[in-house]
Design a protein that fits this description.
Number of strands: 25
Shape: globular
Bound molecules: flavin-adenine dinucleotide
Radius of gyration: 24 Å
Oligomer: single chain
Structural class: alpha/beta
Distance between the termini: 47 Å
Strand order of the largest sheet: 3-2-1-7-19
Helix content: 10-25%
Largest sheet: 5 strands, parallel
Number of helices: 12
């Protein structure tokens, strides 16, 4: 009798765990997850709320601890240091070996370090892992021990770290290389609005400023940063949040094809038979549409996990992520994006933008459209919640920008008692486009016909 196929997954993040759960749903294969960070899967995106006191770390674990045994998913805590694909074996750093028939690499990302002098001092850290969360408790428990924090790198993780530290009233200086916050991703109006919002939260935002060096005290702990604008800023913690890159150093000698990440085809297969890669560490040979070849976001990790599970369970399917969307928070402003709205730096020559911003509140939207055909390309919203399924449908149906304006009320997900801004938005649109669009009343019938 053929022995049971053994699937081994490296990494217990959203990608690896989703793959395991779906393989279990689809088959009776033996499943082992090996991971170095924590015993159990937790929601990385919720780490900030633990430091801020909104939840305990245990509450970031979506599954009870008995779930894994009940579903016959073996959990091994350990760091994989080598893959021997000819013998189909893994070597752990405790010298144990683990054999596999099928291997899924789901090792996620690590915070970037760009070789700054002092980057490995005590008190210098990223915000990625459970260990980073623990380090924050040591380095910045309160404003008496941590008199100032410096954060280097303006992106989504940097602003989260700033919010965390501010929740304990720790003064924060935020060094951002760009001319305006996240202006490689956000269009100008939005990026400027976020600059204002950061400053209003008493975060000392310093644009166009680079880190040169981190200075050490006599005990090897960070005591100050030096910037390229000639300032020396005393601090007790330095947060390095200048992006992340795939966590793949241990694969250097493995024979698995690497670029910035583990190279995969549309089936998430690597160049070596029976080895797959998913989540933040996977790099598509060719990007899918406008997507980046490496997508370091939560839901794509989950989708890749579901996809690879099908393939491993004899239903070979391609990774097809559909229309791009994402959401995040900039302090207390919620941000959503559907389709493609590029920043000034990334804008396509055919891409036009319509931008509306509330005169007083930090609320705005940007709609991207094709200048010639007027096809709707994407929308960013700040402070207004939108319905994912409606925009997904409009993108699929290639609706034009006039249609979006006319039916904008259908897409609004804010509760009815929230202030609604469609009248103002459409008035500005009509003014700029010379149209006479009247917004249609919200129709639940239309909304649910698309659900
Ligand atoms: C603070 C923060 C906030 C975020 N917020 C958002 C958000 O709002 N929305 C969003 O879409 N995304 C967000 N992200 C990104 C999102 O969390 C990641 O895209 C996602 O967690 C990646 O999942 P993954 O399964 O690919 O990898 P990971 O979650 O990184 O899991 C990989 C695991 O593998 C382990 N591992 C690595 N190498 C080895 C090895 N050799 N041996 C054993 N184990 C190993 C790692 O320790 C890790 O536990 C955020 C990320 C951070 C850090």
């Amino acid at each position: 009798m053929k022995s049971m196929e053994k699937v081994v997954i490296i990494g217990n993040g959203i990608a690896g765990v989703t793959a395991a759960r779906h393989i279990r749903k689809l088959s009776d294969k033996s499943i082992t997850i090996i991971s170095a960070e924590t015993d159990y899967f937790f929601s990385r995106t919720a780490l900030m709320y633990v430091y801020m006191g909104h939840m305990k770390f245990e509450h970031t674990q979506p599954y009870e601890n008995w779930f894994w045994k009940k579903n016959r998913i073996d959990l091994v805590k350990g760091y994989v240091s080598k893959i021997n694909h000819t013998e189909k074996k893994l070597l752990l750093d405790n010298k144990k070996e683990v054999a596999y028939d099928k291997l899924i690499i789901a090792t996620g990302s690590k915070p970037n370090k760009f070789g700054w002098p002092g980057q490995d001092l005590d008190g210098v850290q990223g915000l990625y892992s459970k260990q980073d969360l623990d380090a924050m408790e040591t380095n910045a428990p309160n404003k008496d021990i941590c008199k100032r924090a410096v954060i280097v790198g303006g992106g989504l993780i940097g602003i989260e770290m700033a919010e965390m530290l501010r929740s304990r009233n720790i003064p924060v200086t935020f060094l951002v290389r760009e001319n305006s916050f996240w202006d490689g991703v956000l269009p100008k109006g939005e990026s400027q609005m976020i600059n204002e919002h950061i400053l209003e939260h008493h975060i000392n935002l310093r644009l166009k400023t680079n880190l040169v060096e981190i200075l050490s005290d006599e005990n090897g702990k960070a005591k100050a940063v030096v910037t390229d604008t000639g300032d020396t800023i005393a601090c007790d913690i330095v947060g390095l949040t200048a992006g992340v890159s795939p966590n793949i150093n241990f694969l250097k000698e493995s024979g698995i094809e690497l670029g910035r990440g583990v190279k995969v085809n549309r089936y998430l297969e690597t160049n070596i038979k029976d080895i797959y890669a998913i989540g933040d560490c996977a790099e598509q040979h060719e990007s899918i549409g406008n997507r980046r070849p490496i997508e370091a976001v939560w839901y794509t990790g989950r989708m890749m996990g579901e996809t690879v599970a099908q393939t491993i369970c004899d239903n070979k399917i391609q990774y097809k992520p559909g229309h791009w969307f994402n959401s995040a928070k900039f302090l207390d402003i919620e941000y959503q994006t559907y389709g493609w709205v590029f920043s000034e730096k990334g804008k396509k020559e055919y891409e036009g933008h319509f931008h509306w911003r509330h005169p007083k509140e930090k609320i705005c939207i940007t709609v991207a459209y094709h200048k010639e055909t007027k096809q709707f390309l994407g929308i960013n919203t700040f402070g207004i919640r939108m319905r994912h399924n409606i925009f997904d449908q409009w993108l699929t149906e290639e609706k034009n920008v006039y249609h979006i304006m006319e039916y904008l009320k259908d897409a609004n997900f804010d509760p009815e008692f929230y202030a609604q801004y469609e009248q103002e938005i459409i008035a500005k649109f009509n003014n700029e486009f010379g149209t006479i669009i009247a917004p249609k009343k919200k129709s639940w019938k239309r909304i649910f016909s698309k659900a």
